[in-house]
Amino acid sequence: MTPVTSFSGQRVFVFGLGGSGLATALALIAGGAHVTAWDDGEKGREAAHAAGVPVADLREQDWHGVDALVLSPGVPLTHPEPHWSVYLARAAGVEIIGDIELFVRERRSIAPDAPFIAITGTNGKSTTTVLIAHILREAGYDVQLGGNIGTAILSLEPPSPARVHVVECSSFQIDLTPTLDPTVGIHLNLTPDHIDRHGSMELYAAIKERLVAASGTAIIGVDDGWSAAIAERVAAAGRHVVPVSVRQTLATGFSVLGDKILRDGVAVADLAGIGSLRGRHNAQNAAAAFAAVTAIGVSDADAARGLATFPGLAHRMEAVGRAGNVLFVNDSKATNADAAAKALGSFDRIFWIVGGRPKEGGIASLTEYFPKIIHAYLIGESSPDFARTLDGVVPYTLSGTLDQAVVEAARAAGGDGAGEAVVLLSPACASYDQFPNFEVRGNRFREAVQALPQVQTDLR
């Protein structure tokens, strides 16, 4: 835990008592703050009460003299409508912040030189975050990994000069962190997402920009227009910007040419044969991670060794089995078309399992990858719409369920006889029509693959 001593003696309200909210309340109490917490759900209130956190309905409290409202990132701050706690805080002139803001203030208070790497981007941030942590651990560093990736930041050990915090940040979290100032900030890319929570693409981009705007070193992917504009503004403001590109060779910064990562045009690492980092999108993640770790003192040789031993993340281009010439890949995390494009671009002969609860635009944007798809297996609510998109262009089967799709795709790919093939779960959809989340969907895929005859699961 990181006790939040910077709020010692202050009166703090906490709303939202899920994993990060409860950790926040306990960290504030441990640091000497006077905390009152609430959640709209009874389960969260009961968990907080059992942990010794004072629980009371904030609608019935006196907001005069409250120093801060710490809001869970899952609670609407602005769109589609501010939560009632936000209205109360604003009416009383109370600052609204999140748990990452508490961490950055604590870091400035107790260990301002403690290394802190923060990562954001529409796609790839989890892989990049875990990859950075892996490289640092392989190089002998004391690493604390958390944030949006699943471990609440205040559950981690306190910042210190001998410890590196590697923290994934969502746009929701950044929006609640007005003084975010990491040692190294990484912004990977920007495509439309969470517009319902931010109101417009312009506001979404502005929030993402905050992560790198006050970074000591700002590592910014420049392969989309929004991010390239962010890099220009941050550089113009006098920050040290390190651009990253997988589409052009940069004279200054990091780029990828074939399988080689280049710094200022000179090769520093080779991604050939690293199955966990297949595809152009993972090349961008790897280049950004290499830039980040070397910025805080890791040698090029140690960074390259860390890349080579990276095991990858579950549900993100995860190879889960092989049967003869057929590789089975779990990319359940691809919950929109842009994410699915990364996987489709990484293979040549694809038996594609796709579908679920569709996102706006469906899969129409993926037409450039259709020639790679030998056959598509449609599952979930999106099946009728996706069938119309594929009709006459890509052969498809209305499989209905994931289990049925795995059996059908494995049979077809195994009997194809035309060389290496991949059965790829990259749904381009949310999971909520058939599964509670993408993790459960990915686990079901893995189990279905492992139940097939003659599947090898040790792919080392």
Automatic annotation (TrEMBL):
Pathway: Cell wall biogenesis; peptidoglycan biosynthesis. Residues 119-293 form the Mur ligase central domain. InterPro entries: Folylpolyglutamate_synth_CS, Mur-like_cat_sf, Mur_ligase_C, Mur_ligase_C_dom_sf, Mur_ligase_cen, MurD. ATP binds at residues 121-127. GO terms for cellular component: cytoplasm. Cell wall formation. Catalyzes the addition of glutamate to the nucleotide precursor UDP-N-acetylmuramoyl-L-alanine (UMA). This is UDP-N-acetylmuramoylalanine--D-glutamate ligase. It comes from Pseudochelatococcus contaminans. The lineage of its organism: Bacteria, Pseudomonadati, Pseudomonadota, Alphaproteobacteria, Hyphomicrobiales. The gene is murD.
